[in-house]
Each structure stands twice: as structure tokens, then as C-alpha cells.
Amino acid sequence: xxxxxxxxxxxxxxxxxxxxxxxxxxxxxxxxxxxxxxxxxxxxxxxxxxxxxxxxxxxxxxxxxxxxxxxxxxxxxxxxxxxxxxxxxxxxxxxxxxxxxxxxxxxxxxxxxxxxxxxxxxxxxxxxxxxxxxxxxxxxxxxxxxxxxxxxxxxxxxxxxxxxxxxxxxxxxxxxxxxxxxxxxxxxxxxxxxxxxxxxxxxxxxxxxxxxxxxxxxxxxxxxxxxxxxxxxxxxxxxxxxxxxxxxxxxxxxxx
Length: 256
Ligand SMILES: Nc1ncnc2c1ncn2[C@@H]1O[C@H](COP(=O)(O)OP(=O)(O)OP(=O)(O)O)[C@@H](O)[C@H]1O
Hints:
Strand content: 15-25%
Bound molecules: adenosine-5'-triphosphate
Structural class: alpha/beta
Number of helices: 10
Keywords: ATP-binding, Nucleotide-binding
Distance between the termini: 36 Å
Order of helices and strands: EEEHEEHEHHHHEHEHEEHH
Helix content: 25-40%
CATH topology of the largest domain: Rossmann fold
Number of strands: 10
CATH superfamily of the largest domain: P-loop containing nucleotide triphosphate hydrolases
Organism: Inconstantimicrobium mannanitabidum
Number of domains: 2
Protein name: ABC transporter ATP-binding protein
CATH architecture of the largest domain: 3-Layer(aba) Sandwich
Largest sheet: 6 strands, mixed
């Protein structure tokens, strides 16, 4: 059984069908990318998987669990983490605090134990700080731990956002346009970073991205959306040579 199975997921907003009969399988260790013109429904597909929107039809099965319509924090606990098109950080908090907050999804102490700072909570908190520092170390961000998130250069903010996602111990990482706003050098660096974390953390990845060099170099498979419908799927070379895709998208994209 694939790690992620999306079966006929459909999302309607009033009279608009943003995504229709979306089917996707991602196996353990695979990188799958979703491409398509602006407004094709890519982010909506992510939003159905993470239940920002509950699909109007269809199912999302992750790791043999039906997560369709499940509370977002519980979906995170099953092992799905995501980043957003527009970076979402606690801008006034430090790098370390940003990761610590994400880590709290796994805290076991109850509310009272936390409020009263009972020994169990204090012990857990100490472990969380250590885990967060270790993670920052593995990602090469440890030196920045005390910096305010908003003071980091853009590329580092992206990495911090990914670090926050990794702090929840995901099996599947969803990246929504991770290279948005990056120049070719930054994009290459991010591509290498994603390859590195994929291996280090044993991840499967589902990514939306417009930078075609990055998509082609990272993806095992690519799925193409147009007007909420899958018009093609295949390996990078199959997609690059698909006439429908060239007409709908590749021919007109602003590439790097
Ligand atoms: N909450 C919503 N309510 C109504 N319509 C929505 C909502 N979210 C998305 N849509 C519509 O669904 C369609 C798909 O949007 P979506 O953001 O998923 O596209 P996208 O492929 O991610 O685009 P982009 O590349 O520009 O991010 C668009 O027509 C959009 O206006």
C-alpha cells in the first residue's frame, strides 16, 4: 500500500470546482511534484490533504489511516507536515522558539502540568529544547538560534520553515512553492537542501513548484493540473515531452 493514497478528491467552492477527481499515490521515499498554471488547483489539493478544506467528495488515506476531514493537529500527528506558499513564521520569536513551538505537537504533559510547570513538564521541555537544537544543528542553522526569525535572509527563513515542519517528525512533507521568489543560485541551494533532508529524515515529498529545473531534478514523478483536472502524469522526461503539458504550461512558464 502506498504511503499516501488520494482517491477522487474533489473540492467545490460554491459553483466552482477547484479540483475534480484528484487521484494520487506516493510511495515511501518518493518525491512527487504537482505543476500547472496559476489557479489550476494545486494549493487546493494540498489543502484537502491537510484538511484546511475537507474534500466535498473522495478520500485521503495516509499510512492506512483515513485522514479525510481529520483535525489538522491530528493529521500532523499521523506524520504529514507542510510549508506554505507565503512563509509562515512567528516573526518576532527566535529561530529556536519557532522550532520549539512546532515540537510541542508531541508534548505529552497535560494543560495543568504545563501551567504549573510540574517536573514531568519541565523534563519534557528540556528534552524539547535539546531536540530542537539538534535539529537546527543537522540543518546548519544552530548558529542562528537566537536570531529573530524576521531578521534572517529569505533563503534561511525558508529553511527555518522547513525545520519547523521537520520538528513534527513527518513521514510526508508537503512543500508549497518552496523556491518562490528565489534567484537561480538560491534555488539550486534549496534543491540540494531538499535532497539532503529527504535522505537524512527518510522523507517522502509532495511538492508544488514553478521552477522547472528544480522540479525535474528532484521528482520521481510529476502530475500536471489544468483547471483542477489532471491532464498528465509521468516521469520528468515523459512530462517534458508531453504535448498537452507543453501547450498548457511548459511552453508559457517563466522559467529560471
Ligand atoms: N477558499 C476559496 N474559496 C473560493 N475559491 C477558492 C478558494 N480557494 C481557492 N479557490 C479557487 O480555486 C481555484 C484554484 O486555486 P488554487 O489556489 O488551488 O490554485 P493554484 O494552482 O494553487 O494557483 P497558484 O499557482 O496561483 O497558487 C482558483 O480559481 C481559486 O480562485
